[in-house]
Design brief:
The complex is a heterodimer of chains A (about 240) and B (about 425). With about 240 residues, chain A is of the alpha/beta class. Chain A folds into two domains: about 80 residues, D-lysine 5,6-aminomutase beta subunit KamE, N-terminal domain (Defensin A-like); about 160 residues, Cobalamin-binding domain (Rossmann fold, 3-Layer(aba) Sandwich). Chain A contains seven helices and eight strands. Chain A has a five-stranded parallel β-sheet, with helices on both faces. In chain A, strands 1-3-2 form a three-stranded antiparallel β-sheet, covered by helices on one side. Chain A is elongated, with a radius of gyration of 24 Å. Chain B has two domains: about 280 residues, Rossmann fold; about 110 residues. Chain B has twelve helices and 18 strands. Chain B starts with about 20 loop residues before the first helix and ends with a helix. In chain B, about 55% of the residues are buried. Classes of the chains: A alpha/beta (about 240), B alpha/beta (about 425).
Chain lengths: ~240, ~425
């Protein structure tokens, strides 16, 4: 079903817009803003606020109507097929459906010195009101920190008999994260142990489709919370246990 | 003319021609293909061929497209990565679309089919899940672009290749992922096409040098029969004994349930000893001390050979220590290709159990922000590869086969030469 923005009534198409144009706030500035929105295809434009934010810049707040609509069912993405559970449900699920504690090893690999991503997911205090994986009684989480060579991450995962490996890549200059991430997968494949682990990658420039391209089982982008990762790990571990 | 499914890619505001326009690609590909890459491909006995790239944007998918269009075989197609999507996640550049000819069996994921809004007759569902959903095999109807993503692990790719052949594919193409080499392993495919391009190095010379080094690494010589007998290691041959890739533990796999030893030493009298380590990774110094103690002449490493391990060898072993180092195949070398020549300079003779078959090298002059001159780059790659493999540029119609002269045809458009 097609939908349009909701202003006062359903599908009236009214939107609030705010923007800045690099022109002085003169008597004709209001018309410049109005005609600009009309050029974009809006009609019934009402400019509610025009302010100079600098001698050469004008800021606008306007209301305008659009005829453009969208069918949400036609929007296709690369979303991970996972049912998001809460902290308690995840622990119960692991106990009942996986049957053993999930061992998770995580690190920011190679040259990346940023722990913000891996800490948000693993540290006990967690992120965005979610506990991190260390807090889960049914998860044994090992946070190796940052600048961990792929070789060391692999060794630790084998020693701990990990079920899952979590990799974080924050630094993406010259696409260094791509090389780091494919190196880990090539290493695991060469050692013949790729299939033993659920391998998940997260970072500001990661999405699920890109994770697939890199050879990972799932990818998590910005604003991912620990429950999303834990839900996936628990369900994927159960799926592998009972194919 | 649009049959090839490629489109002009522009590099943002620079308007750089990335892949040539579809018309010129098709024309040039036909001329190069008369007896070149496509003839070679059609006649080669390899049933499953991996197209691997040394870097993202090396032109893997363009080569796959050209082969699909010009070789009259019933193809199976899958990808270790993700191909045929509209725009590249990383660079934002438009990517070449994949329009498989009618009847092509395409192994992709349900997520990719959904995203590309592609309708295919689904003929099989494979038991693999990926980040983009289940892996299914569809029969292409021809004329509609499809996003090809395929399974995630090499074991699954191998099983997918088998499934495609089982469903009637005469040839299977495995498109690669970014810079990964794994799909070229003889345990997965029978041969490979190495795609290199201007993006491989920061400069023209670096791109050519890295191409030469990687080619050298991929074509490492096979260990002789006597060496293998002494090590107690058997060649797998092409794809007929890949049981270790079917989810069972690798012989000698690191970890508690490992079977055969990871490292095997043979001294000058031919005495075989297994080294007491579960993995070579991170154990370079310990392994070097042990092989010094044992007087090892030949060392077999069944897992990955890493840069750290080579660094340790170069540091710890005495200069000009004669050693033959044998690995499973060239895809287990997880190191910059340059490290292979470091080992050689140190007197280490690096060999493989299962050599790779490089069917061809393809050169793509695309580079950001400015493409390389196609003819100059092509000739430089030809010079670097020599007569060891045929070299092609499917976009600009350049073609060099061992023993032949460079065939620099002039069918390419002015845009793609810009």
């Amino acid at each position: 079903m097609e939908v349009k923005p909701y202003g006062d009534t359903r599908d009236d198409g009214v939107m609030q817009l705010s923007f800045t144009l690099p022109i002085p706030n003169s008597p004709k500035a209001t018309d410049v803003g109005k005609q600009y929105l009309e050029k974009m295809g809006f009609h019934d434009v009402a400019v509610a606020e025009v302010r100079a934010i600098d001698p050469g810049f004008t800021f606008y707040v306007a209301y305008a109507r659009t005829d453009v609509s969208i069918d949400p069912d036609q929007v296709k993405g690369d979303y991970l097929d996972v049912e998001e559970m809460d902290y308690y449900a995840i622990n119960t699920f692991i106990r009942d459906d996986v049957g053993h504690k999930l061992v998770v090893v995580g690190a920011a690999i190679e040259s990346d010195a940023h722990t913000v991503g891996i800490d948000a997911i693993l540290n006990m205090k967690g992120f965005a009101g979610n506990y991190g994986l260390e807090r889960y009684p049914e998860i044994d989480a090992y946070n190796l920190g940052s600048q961990i060579p792929c070789e060391q991450l692999l060794k630790t995962a084998l020693e701990k008999q990990a079920d899952a490996i979590l990799v974080s890549q924050i630094v993406t200059q010259k696409n260094i994260h791509v090389q780091n991430l494919t190196k880990l997968i090539e290493l695991l494949e060469a050692e013949g142990v790729r299939e033993r682990f659920i391998i998940v990658v997260g970072g500001p420039r990661i999405n699920n489709a890109f994770a697939k391209e890199l050879g990972y089982d799932a990818g998590f982008g910005p604003r991912t919370t620990p429950v999303q990762v834990a839900s996936f790990l628990a369900q994927e571990a159960a799926r592998r246990q009972n194919p | 003319m649009m049959a090839l499914g490629t489109e002009t890619r522009t590099g943002g505001e620079t308007g750089t021609a990335c892949n040539g326009d579809a018309g010129s690609v098709a024309a040039a590909a036909r001329s190069a293909g008369d007896a070149g890459l496509f003839g070679l491909f059609a006649e080669d006995p390899a049933r499953a061929v991996a197209i691997i790239g040394l870097v993202k944007n090396a032109g893997k998918t363009t080569v796959a497209n050209a082969i699909l269009t010009h070789v009259r075989r019933r193809f199976g197609l899958t990808s270790l990565g993700l191909d045929g999507e509209r725009t590249d996640h990383l660079t934002g550049l438009a990517k070449p679309r994949i329009v498989p000819p009618e009847g092509t069996l395409v192994a992709t994921t349900t997520g990719s089919l959904d995203r590309s809004r592609c309708c295919m007759e689904i003929v099989a569902e494979l038991p693999f899940r990926t980040a983009l959903g289940r892996v299914v095999v569809g029969r292409a109807t021809g004329g509609s672009p499809v996003e090809v993503s395929g399974p995630t692990t090499l074991a699954q790719v191998r099983a997918t290749v088998d499934a495609l052949i089982g469903l009637g594919a005469e040839r299977v193409l495995v498109d690669g992922a970014i810079n990964r080499l794994g799909s070229a392993s003889p345990r997965v495919t029978d041969g490979l096409i190495m795609a290199t391009g201007g993006m491989v190095g920061d400069s023209f010379d670096e791109a050519v040098q890295t191409t030469a080094d990687t080619f050298e690494m991929l074509t490492l010589p096979a260990a002789d029969e006597q060496t293998l007998r002494r090590l107690g290691v058997e060649r797998r041959g092409a794809r007929d004994a890949g049981s270790d890739l079917r989810g069972q533990p690798e012989p000698g796999a690191a970890g508690p349930e490992g079977g055969r030893p990871r490292l095997i030493s043979v001294d000058e009298r031919g005495r075989q000893r297994a080294l007491d380590v579960t993995t070579a990774i991170g154990e370079g110094v310990a392994v070097c001390r042990e092989i010094e103690r044992l007087g090892t002449r030949t060392l077999y490493c069944s897992g990955a050979l890493t840069q750290d391990f080579v660094d340790d060898m170069v540091r710890v072993l005495p200069p000009q220590r004669r050693l033959r180092l044998v690995v499973r195949d060239a895809t287990v070398l997880v190191l910059p290709a340059l490290w292979v020549s470091r080992l050689r300079r140190r007197g280490v003779d690096l060999r493989v159990v299962d050599p790779l078959r490089v069917l061809a090298v393809t050169a793509n002059p695309f580079r950001l922000p400015q493409p390389l001159n196609p003819t100059l780059f092509f000739n430089a790659v030809v010079e670097a590869i020599g007569d060891r493999a045929p070299v092609f540029d499917v976009v600009n119609g350049l073609d060099h086969r061992p023993g032949g002269a460079v065939d620099a045809r002039t069918t390419c458009s002015s845009e793609s030469l810009a």
